[in-house]
Amino acid sequence: MKNLGRFIRRIYRICSVYSQKAIKNYSLSTSEMEALRIITHHEGISQQGLADHMSIDKAAVTRLVASLEDKGYIHRISDENDRRLKRLYPTESGRLIKTELRATEHEFYEWIFSEISDEDMEVFARVMEMAFEKAVAGRRSGFGELNDNIGR
Question: Which long-range contacts (CB under 8 A, 24 or more apart) does 132-135 make?
Fold first, then answer.
């Protein structure tokens, strides 16, 4: 395997740099962009749910949420059944940023894959979907067997 993880991380970082240029007027960090992306995709998500999605601790998600709320991109609403629980929703400004971000990322990925054949892209998409499904299942199960390999 030609160190695919390194390539995936590097492409993601380069895409983030490109995306940052496109939304520079919004003063968002990469973490804030990711949080806003999750909140707009999962409207009403709890702060704990956001922390789980981002694999960060409660203190970090609290800072992110406070920053996004101060900037006017999200708002928190108390859960109807449990007033201690805060649900996160994007504002119209937050939705607009998500739309711009999605279009920018789409443009970037169209560009980097433009010279790859349709057949190769179909195989690549299938493999990436399988890898994604395994990663999600692993996260949901607490990474079971993978935990045994940590520290080796």
Answer: none
Q: Confirm if 103 and 42 have CB atoms less than 8 A apart.
A: no
Q: How does DSSP assign 93-142, residue by residue?
A: HHHHHHHHHHHHHHHHHHHHTTTS-HHHHHHHHHHHHHHHHHHHHHHHTT
pLDDT of residue 149: 64
* CATH architecture of the region 4-112: Orthogonal Bundle (1.10)
The residues spanned by each domain of the chain are: 4-112, 118-143
Say how many residues make up the chain: 152
Ranked by mean pLDDT, the top range of 1-10, 29-38, 121-130, 134-143 is: 121-130
Is residue 26 pLDDT above 90, yes or no?
Answer: no
Burial readout 67-103 (b: 16 or more C-beta within 10 A, e: otherwise):
bbeebebbeeeeeeeeeeebbbebeeebbebbeebee
Tens-digit pLDDT profile for residues 27-86: 888 899 899 999 999 999 999 999 999 989 999 999 999 999 999 999 999 988 888 888
Which tokens in the block code for residue 7? Answer: 């390539």
Tokens 């609290």 -> residue: 62
State the pTM of this model.
Answer: 0.73
